[in-house]
Design a protein that fits this description.
single chain, Rossmann fold, 3 domains, 12 strands
């Protein structure tokens, strides 16, 4: 089978930095806890767990040692609790997520009603919301009904959303007649480049595979976009999840991967696919 790999896929700088920081910290510290999964990839989380990284859901669960802030960031309240307990902090927050946090706070200080386009349950959004006040998270045009018509809006976006969805939401907001809008593009360029490369590739192949954690927002978005252009698109975590009957009658296959998918997972998948 002929296999084509997207020009841009796999680990982004933010994820690679988080993993490197985790590995370095584990070498230097005895007790290391991650506030939530460091990235959305079970293979990586499992390996780091074997190396000694403990994943916790709340600061209340740790009394000593070092707390690693995952790539998605943490709320100001969580950071305050860590400092209050006298715990050491190693911050692996993606620099782009930090930028969104600062912008959200700045918009609030300037008197804007902060509106974030994204998934309210995603850890990145929870962290951003925790850095500002009076924030509204909107995912669809229908969510805009929650906003006051007289609001002065400061609009930002979850870093892993698609450019198309961001544009659609901005258009929907503009149609509502708010008194003032300040829009700041906080989309991740790495994410946009991966999305563009994935869509380009999926149009050229018989079947498309998107590799990455099922809880990874950017990977799910890749699969969603590819599915629009190629119905034979499948989101898998690794080679073990592939039902090879899907390959019957297919000549060319495309492979892309989310920003938290290790190179080894991509390489193994491509190797096995080429041999099939």
């Amino acid at each position: 089978m002929k296999v084509l790999v997207a020009e841009k896929c796999g680990f982004c700088p933010g994820v690679r930095n988080a993993i490197n920081l985790a590995e370095k910290t584990l070498e230097q510290e005895k007790e290391v806890s991650s506030l939530g999964h460091i990235i959305h990839n079970e293979d990586v989380v499992s390996q780091l767990s074997e190396d000694g990284l403990k994943t916790i859901d709340s600061i209340d669960a740790v009394e000593s040692g070092t707390v690693l802030i995952r790539s998605h960031g943490a709320t100001q309240d969580e950071l305050d609790k860590i400092n209050l307990k006298g715990l050491k902090i190693v911050d692996a927050t993606c620099v782009l997520v930090k930028r969104v946090q600062k912008i959200a706070r700045q918009l609030h200080e300037e008197g804007y009603k902060v509106v974030i386009i994204g998934d309210k349950n995603h850890p990145e959004i929870k962290a951003v919301v925790g850095f500002s006040q009076d924030v509204e998270v909107v995912a669809t045009p229908e969510d805009l009904d929650k906003l006051s018509k007289n609001s002065k809006l400061g609009v930002i976006c979850q870093t892993t959303q698609s450019l198309g969805h961001f544009a659609e939401m901005i258009a929907a907001i503009a149609e509502r007649g708010f008194s003032e809008m300040k829009i700041i593009n906080t989309l991740c360029r790495e994410t946009m480049e991966r999305q563009t490369a994935a869509v380009k590739l999926c149009r050229q192949v018989d079947i498309m595979f998107v590799l990455g954690g099922l809880h990874s927002a950017n990977t799910r978005k890749l699969a969603e976009l590819c599915k629009k252009h190629n119905l034979q698109t499948y989101h898998l975590q690794n080679w073990n999840e592939l039902d090879t009957t899907l390959l019957c009658g297919k000549v060319t296959a495309g492979v892309t991967a989310g920003a938290s998918t290790p190179d080894a997972v991509i390489e193994e998948f491509v190797y096995n696919l080429e041999r099939y």
